[in-house]
């Protein structure tokens, strides 16, 4: 059942690096453990630090297919797990001849053919390597967590009419969350936990250089330091890694090769998304 | 292996006594994880344990502190150093055991290391200086280790100016460049201080045993720090948590509202949905209830002792302002003034707070808390503030300097409002002692103990209606 894909922590680091995702020891170790122990991995952290990207990178590095379940308010079983294809069932019943017995129709109507498989079931039934990404788990309702418990602890799904379907090959599961609400203890206990925070200066610079190769190293260094200075202010929304990358792209597009006060002033909108943050940064960094 | 296992269990136990919940299932996971990673790679080992037992970012510091104690990177005096700069240092020390190490040379070395920003070298340096400078002989056969000895002699903060100079490398001072450089240097210095502190803890643990040190080494979590005892760092940390906290509360509230009974049948949607099931309305749809949104009036004591608490609560009230139809804030020390105008929607709350303390008319007589006069002024000047839809919150420790309490006026205010609560940041055990007028006020208004962010969160949850 368990078929680990990674040999060691450095192996994780290397292979994720090869597909363009630079890891630190924390990320690599946790991904390695999730793979080795066959446990789901809950990734929490501020928006834009690469939570979803991590799952995608792992899928790319292991050559697995990525199956994604995007959570939202009102997500329910029929859209996460499976659903019976009502209309097709109705058609089948209407098309049946009079001499068909009810038993025959009944068995026929609840067969594989009428089952609409949704992401969770699809991921469990696959026999090829799979990465299941359950994105923004905190946006879903509390009941969905209950639903996930069975799927994530035993990797099985019970369909009353068909019986229990058990995974023949465990998918590698990533759950992401922005921590807008506390997930239940039961769910957390079943998962390994990784808190992805803003990367340290070294890594952030490496990531920016990697994602925006046109940017000069000197400029990347300046940019990362400035972003870190911005993060140290008490802002409503601190700029995250995604904003650093956008900023680097902007600077490249504008053809700026040094980040002086004028450059910062004219491009601050790329990193700060609130008017009040803007003013605060401007006064604290003495841009006016 | 059994030794390692015992160590692990001891460590997890220490986490539990520091307030983390570590279930048996997590212990089993951690043990399995230890088998999977390379135990010689200490960082891998640390993160593997963290992945299994840590479930909240706020617990990270506690975890790291305890991990360094239970699984130290080295024991005893540090190994012979092999780094260029550190070599000189090692020689100097080995040469003459008795003479005190040369502080000037050490400071110079520290300056170079801070400028380079190489973490490994800095950590080795911290180890060296702690064994060189931090030791004090206590009782015979026992040694004491002090981080302040090290930090006082090296005083890394005083290196700031020269480090800034070097980092700026001729760029003009005062602008963006300086701010950025300053941030970098501060971060590195803080890193160094933490290294020294953790090194000292390690040496102490070797002397006294881990179990003993575990009890004292761990700081309480920010959300559990008492408002009245919070340091500046704690307050800054709390302020950073205001918006996440508000968002969490708001989401939880929406969830509760949705779970509550839904409203009248939505005929149109029900019929539309029934088309999918051949015209049979299998599922009925309902209109959502309109949530009831109260008006919030906050009356807060902003005098020195309780200012931190008032600020935090005000920030939270404003972060949650969309949950209320209206938020009005009044501040007082010995007289009362409306401060709502400083809090513009979407504005910067931290700045509003500083404007509030400099511009609002809060002092009338001597600048010592006077609840009686403040309450009278409030009732007199803003008679329309409290009405039947208002939730009135009063924040303060009720330490009235033995003045008149104005409890009678307060009773009238409470009767006029929909709800009224008094949030007191003092531990309930101290209420009604000394000049606290808690007893008089508690007769007329519900008084709630709100010592820390956790209690405040609980209270706000109760206050907000479904």
Report on this model:
The complex is a heterodimer of chains A (288) and B (466). By secondary structure, chain A is α/β, with parallel strands linked by helices. Chain A has 14 helices and 9 strands. Chain A is elongated. The mean pLDDT of chain A is 88. Chain B has a 6-stranded mixed beta sheet, with helices on both faces. Chain B is an alpha/beta fold. In chain B, helix 9 (160-168) crosses helix 10 (176-208) and helix 16 (371-381) packs across helix 17. Helices cover 54% and strands 8% of the residues of chain B. In chain B, strand 6 (390-395), helix 17 (407-416) and strand 7 form a beta-alpha-beta unit. Chain B has helices at 2-17, 24-36, 42-53, 60-70, 84-95, 103-116, 119-133, 147-154, 160-168, 176-208, 210-217, 232-259, 267-274, 307-319, 349-359, 371-381, 407-416, 438-444, 453-463, and strands spanning 135-137, 143-145, 295-301, 326-332, 336-338, 390-395, 419-424, 446-449. At the A-B interface, helix 2, helix 5, helix 9, strand 9 and helix 11 of A face helix 2, helix 3, helix 10 and helix 12 of B.
